[in-house]
Amino acid sequence: MDRDIRIWRHLCIDMQRLFAEETPWHVGWAHRVLPAVERLSRAAPEKTIFTRFLPPRSASAAPGMWRQYYEKWWMMTGEHVDPALLDLVAPLESLTPPAIVFDKTVYSPWLDGRLHRHLVEQGVGTLAISGGETDVCVLATVLGAVDLGYRIILLKDGVCSGSDPTHDASLAVIGGRFSVQAEVMETDDFIDRFARPLTSLSTS
Questions:
Q1: Which residues contact 129 (CB under 8 A, 6 or more apart)?
Q2: How open is the CA angle 119-125-130, to the nearest 5 degrees?
Q3: pTM greater than 0.85 (yes/no)
Q4: What is the DSSP string of 100-144?
Q5: Which of 13, 99, 161, 203 could form a disulfide with 133 if both were Cys (CB 3.0 to 4.6 A apart)?
């Protein structure tokens, strides 16, 4: 099926309790950007896709360099972390369904092909991307989406990181070096242009 840039989905990356609460992976900005993420998610829950990052059961179960990563972060593996922390934060969890969830075990949501196949089946050509972290999982999502040919709108006030310098650098790189495929936009501007019933570019 051909993809149409008028058909869009909101792809929200890893807005989970694991990162919003006081854990070793806590991202302080998560609560700051949550209102913007929630506004768009509630404006079009049927067009919203949440991803969740799921650690392995143990470091020994992780492949390649991920094993060393989880030897460092052993306390975040499945045998130690509270499974409830893998859930989406409460305001977003309540939107599923109609919003849907794709789980992943690496930074990128594209690796196993399921998400891309789902979007292609829906004819989706444009992705509005929110969530965290800007310079890790969001960046991996954007770069993969570029390679797969999507039009990308990165929601400036809807992405978060634990590092201000690399957050800012990521926004600059995405909005500058990838300016043909990607643009950086405020969430309310996106809602006004795409998600309000009278101005939506597509009902699909």
A1: 11, 12, 13, 138, 141, 142, 145, 152, 153, 154, 155, 159
A2: 80
A3: yes
A4: EEEEESSS-S-TTSHHHHHHHHTTEEEEEEEEE-TTTHHHHHHHH
A5: 161
Tokens for 163, please give them: 């590092």
Question: What is the number of structural domains in the chain?
Answer: 1
Residue 73, in any domain of the structure: no
| Integer angstrom CA distances of residue 186 from 122, 129, 158 | 25, 11, 8
Look up the CATH number of the domain holding residue 30. 3.40.50.850
Per-residue tens of pLDDT for the chain, all 204 residues: 567 788 999 999 999 999 999 999 999 889 999 999 999 999 999 999 999 999 999 999 999 999 999 999 999 999 999 999 999 999 999 999 999 999 999 999 999 999 999 999 999 999 999 999 999 999 999 999 999 999 999 999 999 999 999 999 999 999 999 999 999 999 999 999 987 753 344 445
Going by C-beta distance under 8 Å and a sequence separation of 6 or more, which residues neighbour residue 29?
A: 132, 160, 161, 162, 167
